[in-house]
């Protein structure tokens, strides 16, 4: 059974999520909190596997709470569930250790699937957030020093992964075969010690391959 804790100051949203989750046989809500301070207390009491965390909370923000919980309980998975699609919130949440980032306009089925995916050790990122990475990468065609472990071709493939391109699309863009793309993607996964494309994105953010200081403040 996957134990979930809900952190949001809107009762209607919490009740809605709880009702949806209660329909699933393998997931249960073990606790709820309406503030940053309450989230820390409830996390200690219930020891959830996954926390669905809003950003805008009374007291400490969801990002600050994520930092505190990850510091004290690194085994707890946190998926930010917010209305904010701002670049800076996304980057900050991931760098503080969030395992996923979804927007509140996500279908309920997607939220449920995200819980299972994150519980399985992978990461989930709302599609619109990966597009934001592409926007400023096009403006700042660079990778930070932390990516020096990659070859030049692997860096090119990484950029394509951040754009959300499929292997076939990467092959067409870089004029290489699908097989060669698979080899490069496999090497990137191995060097980053990840298992999915979402985890590649999170690794890139947490290790500042995507420099926060260069993000445009369009929103």
List the helices and strands and how they pair.
Blueprint: E1 2-7, H1 11-21, E2 27-33, H2 36-46, E3 50-53, H3 62-72, E4 77-82, H4 87-95, E5 100-103, H5 108-119, E6 124-125, H6 127-139, H7 152-163, H8 167-174, H9 178-192, H10 197-206
Parallel strand pairs: 1-2, 1-3, 3-4, 4-5, 5-6
Helix pairs in contact: 2-3, 7-9, 8-9
Word description of this protein:
This protein has helices at 11-21, 36-46, 62-72, 87-95, 108-119, 127-139, 152-163, 167-174, 178-192, 197-206, and strands at 2-7, 27-33, 50-53, 77-82, 100-103, 124-125. It has a 6-stranded parallel sheet with strand order 2-1-3-4-5-6, sandwiched between helices. With 219 residues, the protein is of the alpha/beta class. InterPro entries: CheY-like_superfamily, NreC/VraR/RcsB-like_REC, Sig_transdc_resp-reg_C-effctor, Sig_transdc_resp-reg_receiver, Tscrpt_reg_LuxR_C, WalR-like. It comes from Virgibacillus kekensis. Residues 143-208 form the HTH luxR-type domain. Keywords: DNA-binding, Phosphoprotein, Transcription, Transcription regulation.
């Amino acid at each position: 059974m996957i134990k979930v804790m809900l952190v949001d100051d809107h009762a209607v949203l919490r009740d809605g999520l709880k009702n949806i989750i209660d329909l699933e046989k393998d997931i249960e809500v073990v606790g709820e909190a309406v503030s940053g301070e309450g989230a820390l207390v409830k996390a200690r009491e219930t020891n959830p596997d996954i926390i669905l965390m809003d950003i805008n909370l009374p007291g400490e923000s969801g990002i600050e709470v994520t930092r505190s919980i990850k510091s004290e309980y690194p085994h707890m998975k946190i998926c930010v569930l917010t209305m904010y699609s701002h670049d800076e919130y996304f980057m900050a949440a991931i760098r503080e250790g969030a395992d996923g980032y979804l927007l509140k306009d996500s279908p309920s089925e997607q939220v449920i699937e995200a819980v299972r995916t994150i519980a399985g050790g992978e990461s989930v990122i709302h599609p619109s957030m990966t597009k934001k990475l592409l926007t400023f990468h096009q403006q700042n065609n660079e990778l930070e020093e932390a990516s020096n472990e990659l070859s030049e071709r692997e860096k090119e493939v990484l950029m394509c992964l951040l754009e959300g391109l499929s292997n076939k699309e990467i092959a067409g863009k870089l004029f290489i075969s699908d097989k060669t793309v698979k080899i490069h993607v496999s090497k990137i996964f191995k060097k980053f010690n990840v298992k999915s494309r979402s985890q590649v994105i999170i690794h890139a953010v947490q290790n500042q391959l995507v420099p926060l200081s260069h993000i445009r403040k369009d929103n």
